[in-house]
Amino acid sequence: MIVRQLNDILATDRDVQAETWTSRRLLLANDKVGFSLHDTVMKAGTETTMWYKNHIEAVYCVEGDGELEDLVNGRRYPLSPGTLYVLNGHERHIVRPKTDVRMVCVFNPPVTGRETHDDEGAYPLIIED
Ligand SMILES: CC(=O)NCC[C@H](N)C(=O)O
To answer: Which molecular function GO terms apply here (predicted)?
Structure first.
């Protein structure tokens, strides 16, 4: 069994800062559970374009307000506590938080550690044995 506290990973290697978000990586590939799980805060007033070509991501909003745009079809969705979206078609998309938006993010295959977005908004595919 793995038991962890968010407080114990703050300011460690599992606490990853990017310009528009902070990702606290509670579970990573080396935990060997088949997915990674992140407590992520997207910063108020920013815009992030993402395209997870190598991963499926599920995102569950637990705090804050914002907007999600699916760039495949131009549809926009409000983001508020209780909203789930899953990029099961590797959809290119934009998140626009109005306030800080806190999300629980799950990646399959799991993220390995310090990944941040490349120029296209993707993470590289790194498979660990
Ligand atoms: C919602 C979202 O994808 N934000 C970008 C950060 C990423 N999900 C992460 O926590 O690694």
So the answer is: ectoine synthase activity
